[in-house]
């Protein structure tokens, strides 16, 4: 079944406090004209998902509905994605973009978020609170995920007592053996930390800068001035992305000791654009590419990972060196939860974090001296545990040991 219009959304007797807060903000700042135009432009784009969001009051009704919406899926496997994309599609219209914090070097945390950007963060928190309640998951909604092929529910282990909330379900665990770790005893083999699609790698300069779409971003910004921020100068930065139906737990790509494990607060952002479906109808599609201009569906701007809420886990491997793994919350991901802590000794494939609701990203940083060669190909999906790179320093050491 193709994507379809969402709504109509009923008008409540009383709006959710988050929606009322936005209404008050718009009135106080005299932003009515900008928001009316944003909703109108989104509607006039012809995207099916905005069929019932023609006016600003319609947008308020949608936001109120979304805050207590019980997530479910349809045959397309796109319903969850499309429901959360509407908000960002409206907020990404030109008339309201200037009211939000820019995605640019040093925009966060050095500069405080704008009032609207801070509201977006609080909205995601409020949504996350509901998704942690038993009311956010019903027998009917759970059945819809089992009936949607892209969710591959046959790979997951249902708790004996069941999932207690949607977020509990969203962070569901795989069945034992569903994701075998490739070459678990070979330290030179680096594996995918998550079920994710590889989207490329970039060199880090000797001054700890990575240039994304001609904008220079410092690794210090990404790592929130971690004491290890300069250790990745001259190294490699890589990126992969997850979509809502993927397995949303993150595992270590190497073995080693955790030097640092923190959550870095930041913005909540997702840039949404339009594509045509098989019928030629305009729709919001559930895929995302980073820094690639061809066929972009949700083209998050270069460097958005440096501004988003994210986890930071730095692992020290005696054979590879330091590796930084950053699970990055996207859109309405209400939290990045760490499963490890500093001092922990990890085996390759051990869990280190998980996400709650939405799409997500994973970035990995390697040191220069590690001589890591990325084997992953752009646009290819790699299940957690599948090899994506090889460390040549570890290979060379192994060969030397054999020759002794």
**Could you list the spans in which at least 5 consecutive residues all have pLDDT below 50?**
286-307
CATH homologous superfamily identity of the domain at 181-269 and 307-403: Glucose Permease (Domain IIA)
Percent of residues in β-strands: 15-25%
Q: What is the C-alpha radius of gyration, as a whole number of Å?
A: 22 Å
Question: Quick one: biggest sheet?
Answer: 8 strands, antiparallel
CATH architecture of the domain at 181-269 and 307-403: Distorted Sandwich
Strand order of the largest sheet: 13-7-10-11-15-5-2-17
GO molecular function: phosphatidylserine decarboxylase activity
Keywords: Decarboxylase, Lyase
Organism: Gigaspora rosea
Protein name: Phosphatidylserine decarboxylase-related protein
What does this structure look like?
The structure is a single chain. The protein has 10 helices and 18 strands. It has 404 residues and is of the alpha+beta class. It has a domain of 186 residues: Glucose Permease (Domain IIA), CATH 2.70.70. Helix 1 runs antiparallel to helix 6. The longest helix is centred in the N-terminal third of the chain and has 17 residues.
Short synopsis of the structure:
With about 400 residues, the protein is α+β, with helices and mostly antiparallel strands. It has helices at about 15-30, 30-45, 55-65, 80-90, 95, 115-130, 140-145, 165-170, 220, 390-404, and strands spanning about 190, 195-205, 210, 215-220, 235-240, 250, 255-265, 275, 280-285, 310-315, 320-330, 335-340, 345, 350-355, 360-365, 370-375, 380, 385-390.
